[in-house]
Amino acid sequence: MAAHQHGSEANLSQNLKHGLQSRHLTMISIAGVIGGSLFIGSGNVIYSAGPAAVLAYALGGLLVLFIMRMLGEMAVQNPDSGSFSTYADRAIGRWAGFTIGWLYWCSWALLMGWEAYVAGKILNNWFPFIPIWGYMLLVIGSLVWINLQNVKNYGEFEFWFALIKVIAIVIFLVIGSLAIMHLWPWGEGSAAGVGNLTAQGFMPNGFSSVITALLGVMFAYIGAEIVTVAAAESKNPSKEIRKASNSIVWRIMLFYVGSMLITVCLIPYNNPLLKDPTWGTYSVTLSALGVPEARHIVSFVVLTSVCSCFNSALYTCSRMLFSLSKRGDAPKSFGYLNKKGSPGIGVIASCLFALFATFLTATESMNVYDIFMLATGTAALYVYLTIAFSQLRMRKKLEAEGAKIDFKMWLFPWLTYLVIFAIIGSIITMLIEGTYFKEVTYTSLLALFIVAVGFLVQKFNWGKNAQSEMIQEKPSL
């Protein structure tokens, strides 16, 4: 069938529909950096790093800014549904594209299980007549149906999911700012002004706690790169990628750094509720400010947020499988498109861990899933490290060939080298400190396992024909 003929990697995305509009991609790029971790997981970062958590989010945001600029440089030059996995394949080697593509898929597929569980738990708290696992199946089934339709459906749902999150954050920023300026009339007297910012020390647990907190921060930021995957299904990919890369600064500064600054000003960093997953950062802050039913309001926002994350994760996983399939690094069936232009088999296969999480919840064994979640711990850092190495090598080759590069990484190659050293240094610090030893180790083991599988795949290749054709047609860098 013509839609599935194996062409060069540069043309992989042409089989997919160009159904995403500019407003969809704007909201997808915003939603990509606003996950459930902002509302729930950020409390743990504040509790461990103190008010200096603001610094951790700022440093993490700076790192993501540089990474998105590097990824944007490659994506503007050659938009592709496989994004950084495709670029790693070309710049570093097939083993790198295979490994990072499958590691990324595993990370998002595992996260979908957690997101479905959180959604199920919130719905069960409101309407307890259906068990958590029943709601999980409902959420999974609904979002699978959306992703099996035309890509425009995914974009439309993500647009509204993201809009709810953005409105909630803006309201939080307004209320928090009023409280800091002593203009908020309700709540505890102590929960006003900036007293908590330095009351017990800005960095009570030392600078090393800020570095180790980076893992939680990077976990929150992962998803910013989704727009480079989604842009391949728009009418003007290069323009949309350029726009998203340029606007990521204010999104991170406003949504994350701004939210964290307000929280650490208004709430003591060692408030035990901050590390209670049933509360979350926004709930603790708004409750202290006397906002009625703050927990239920934030729970609704968290519900839309985790559904948005699940929706985007499912979309990204299916497109990554599509790209891997076209390169001969995944079964051919993952590259088949249904009548709506969606890689249907890839969509269904990507729900594997979410369904497993549902089974564990139904058998009251969900604590087992925590072991799997450890393997996602440093995945974001490995993905970003791969992007940096890919951009370094690809840029040098393009410049050697005299190619025109319209969208460039700043201060090349020194800033790229700095990012590489910073990521490697962060991983080493996490290992030495021991705080995230398991996360680093488990993710590394998962990556090594994927590399080993990659060698076996190359030896007994399920897509041998695709591989040979692509090697022949692969464009030069």
From TrEMBL:
Pfam families: AA_permease. Coiled coil: none annotated. The chain crosses the membrane at residues 25-47, 53-71, 92-114, 126-148, 160-186, 206-227, 248-269, 297-322, 343-362, 368-389, 410-432, 444-462. Keywords: Membrane, Transmembrane, Transmembrane helix, Transport. One of its GO terms (cellular component) is membrane. Residues 24-458 form the Amino acid permease/ SLC12A domain. It is a multi-pass membrane protein. It is found in: Membrane. One of its GO terms (biological process) is amino acid transport. It comes from the Bacteria. This is GABA permease. It comes from Acinetobacter haemolyticus CIP 64.3 = MTCC 9819.
